[in-house]
Amino acid sequence: MSSLMEKSPLGVFQAHLAKGELAYQVCLDDNKPFFYPRAVAPATGSENIEWRVSKGLGTVYTTTAIHYKGEPPLNVAMIDLDEGFRMMSRVEDIDAMQVKIGMRVKFRVHPGDDKQAPYPVFTPAVTSTGDAK
Amino acid sequence: MSNARLAGLQRGSVAVVGAAESDLGQVAQGTHPMDLMAQATMRALEDCGLTLKDVDGLFVAATQVRMGPMAFAEYLRIKPTYFDGTIIGGSSFMTHVAHAQAALQLGLCNVAVIAYGSTQRSVSRAAASPRDFNPFESPYRPFMPSTAYAMAAARHMHQYGTTREQLAEVAVSARKWALMNPKAWEKEPLTIEQVLNARMVCYPLTVRDCCLVLDGGGAIVMVRADRAKSLKQKPVYVLGTGESLSHANISSMPDFTVSAAVESGKQAYAMAGMKPADMDMLSLYDAFTITPILFLEDLGFCPKGEGGRFVEGGTIAPGGKLAVNTSGGGLSYCHPGMYGLLVMIEAIRQVRGECGQRQVKNCDVSLAQGNGGVLSSECTVIFGSEATV
What we know:
The structure holds two protein chains of two kinds. Chain A is mainly beta. Chain A contains one helix and eight strands; from the N terminus they run H-E-E-E-E-E-E-E-E. The longest helix of chain B is centred in the N-terminal third of the chain and has 16 residues, at 33-48. Chain B has 15 helices and eleven strands. Chain B is of the alpha/beta class. In chain B, the strands form two sheets. Chain B has a nine-stranded mixed sheet, sandwiched between helices. Chain B has helices at residues 2-8, 33-48, 68-76, 92-106, 120-123, 125-128, 146-160, 164-178, 192-197, 225-228, 261-272, 290-298, 307-311, 329-332, 340-352; strands spanning 14-21, 57-60, 82-84, 112-118, 200-202, 205-206, 216-224, 236-245, 281-284, 365-372, 377-384. In chain B, a hairpin with a 4-residue loop joins strand 10 (365-372) and strand 11.
């Protein structure tokens, strides 16, 4: 990422998302993952940055349900991805109040609409035995 | 970090000599935020016996006045030799105190005014504090800042067993203090049940766990200690300050149960040469009921995780063992968007001993904790009476 003339960090992230991928960056100087996407790695200042694709599995770090007037409660949660970065998101396919800290969740793409570009959301992860972990 | 501060700033080198609120609550339609700033500034100058002509240092932060020092200098038609518009949310004004101290010590100005005003109740919070678009948060429609504080509260409950009743206790304690403050917005008693059963905003926070949304402003005047003695009011000395930035967006907060007040508090205690037990009263930024709980822990008044249990049973209410937010706080007295200046004004008045019915006995040292953004910026100021310098 030496030039911002052709690709932006957000642009690369969104291009991955368009392919159904949740991308994040790792600073190759200190081997630490980071999120949100940046042109320069935090703390090191390095431009020696690699894009990687997350497996999309994570754990709810904290959660809330927003009570907007005239709407069902809306979940907002912080998700700790297994690769070691954290992001804000929403857990879907479950009542907002039933999203619990420690719950395992899996990434999917929300398609967005004419005003909002596609963005990552999560759903409760179900293991092969059928148990939510 | 605290060593660098100690090298530059001297305990007790400056004092707050004037302090005043503007009109608070809901002001007349068309009032400009700078009308409130100016009203408070003139009241604070009158409080200490100085005039506008004396002011050569200007410190302004406001969400409705984008370039504060420039706009307010124009409004007052003064030409300050030193100005600072650092804006980091509600703790901006604690930062201004530290920066004003540096400027005063260096002789870059002689009379510093720190001013704030907001008409957020009149024009709506959305209009008064528009938020930056963030492609990694905005799509989820967080109701900021409430959503961020709710997530901090939820994590604290999960990790330490803090309960909604304990959060409510903070609001109930604040209300008891407010009933002794004639300037407080809230005039009726409040119970834990009422807090729990109030309209839910962001779980676990109901509307009674959230601060008021009011118009208001304030101003303080600072001079060097030698000049302070000859002015009208008893000087209130700046014994210690601390400033710390943690993050801007809640997604980047490292640990939702630990605020940067750990660092700002350490700096302020080190500069003052004091410890938590030396504080006679605390003014803790209470935008939400979770924040005083975090600050009691992070400033060393109870161990990490014990804040909820600490406030149970009226510990921080009138008659409790620790006087906290005696004005009634942002929860029950006034919260005009960025509340830090009013947080300090109460701490200053307690040291002056002019708080009437709610006055803390023998209050020589007070601590004001500012908080900005979403637990983002934490700044601490320790004030002391003549007896402490």
